[in-house]
Specification:
By secondary structure, the chain is mainly β. It has two domains: 99 residues, no CATH class; 42 residues, no CATH class. The chain is 3% helix and 44% strand. It has a five-stranded antiparallel sheet with strand order 4-3-2-1-10, with no helix packed on it. A hairpin with a 2-residue loop joins strand 5 and strand 6. It is rod-shaped and about 115 Å long. It binds zinc ion. The site of zinc ion has 8 residues, from loops.
């Protein structure tokens, strides 16, 4: 579980024990941009909650594992190993469990595209698309395919002809 220490001025230190490695991340979110720096150290598993202590302009961090005591010094954006003997135990504070601040935001759901027009009913009127049909009571209005069904073709050559034509315009075949 990661722990955090708030340095103020938009700076936070995160400590995590990943396997046998201690990961220290320094995150600055000042002046509109996020910056991160950090170190990793082979420490073994923590046996205590890590602690932090403020000393002047720097912050000391301390982890205790089966392998010993590890102390780091954070100054500005620099993280370095510090002398464990210099640990100011009386100023130390246990770190707080980290919020989800370092974790990536969940991906934003893509917008669902607009549905094509769905059949719609208002009172006794029913509208639907493809083909566009309007039904009102027992009256039905349909638009679109009416023309295709009225088309006629010459029985001789198969050319399209008008309904009232007496002769085919293509081959001259007498119709009707
Ligand atoms: Zn014809």
């Amino acid at each position: 579980m990661p722990y955090q220490y708030d340095l103020g001025f938009g700076q936070k230190i995160y400590l995590d024990n990943s396997g046998l490695t201690t990961v220290i991340t320094l995150a600055s979110s000042g002046s509109g941009q996020q910056q991160q720096s950090g170190i990793q150290a082979q420490t073994g598993l923590w046996t205590e909650v890590p602690q932090a202590a403020r000393t002047g302009s720097s912050v000391l961090l301390r982890c205790v594992t089966a392998q010993g005591v590890f102390v780091w010094q954070v100054q500005g954006t620099e993280i370095g190993v510090a002398d464990a003997a210099a640990w100011p135990a009386q100023q130390a504070l246990a770190l707080q469990p980290a919020e989800a601040g370092l974790q990536a935001m969940p991906p934003i759901k893509p917008m669902t595209p607009m549905e094509p027009m769905a059949p719609m009913t208002m009172g006794n009127m029913h509208l639907s698309a493809n083909p566009m049909t309007m039904q009102m009571g027992d009256m039905t209005l349909s638009m679109g395919n009416a023309e295709a069904s009225a088309k006629k073709f010459c029985t001789q050559c198969g050319s399209a002809i008008q309904a009232g034509d007496r002769f085919c315009g293509s081959c001259g075949h007498q119709l009707q």
